[in-house]
Design goal:
Blueprint (H helix, E strand, L loop, with lengths): L3 E3 L8 H8 L5 E11 L2 E10 L2 H12 L1
Antiparallel strand pairs: 1-3, 2-3
């Protein structure tokens, strides 16, 4: 599956927090949590993978439509 980008995440968020958050849309395969510092600004984002295309469709439909 292709990963879904999720940005603007709280800096103290943990991988387990994000797995629990996105579990309501379908079975989460992997959450790659990334963080860094750019021009004195701390940022955090994740790349989220679901197990199936239907789970991705559920996420998009429930969040954005």
């Amino acid at each position: 599956m292709r990963p879904i980008f999720c940005g603007n995440i709280e800096f103290d968020a943990r991988q387990g927090d994000l797995e629990r958050l996105f579990r309501k849309y379908g079975k989460v395969d992997r959450v790659d949590l990334k963080s860094g510092n750019l021009a004195c600004y701390n940022y955090i984002f994740c790349m989220l993978n679901f197990y199936s295309c239907q789970d991705i469709a559920n996420y998009i439909y429930l969040c954005y439509l």
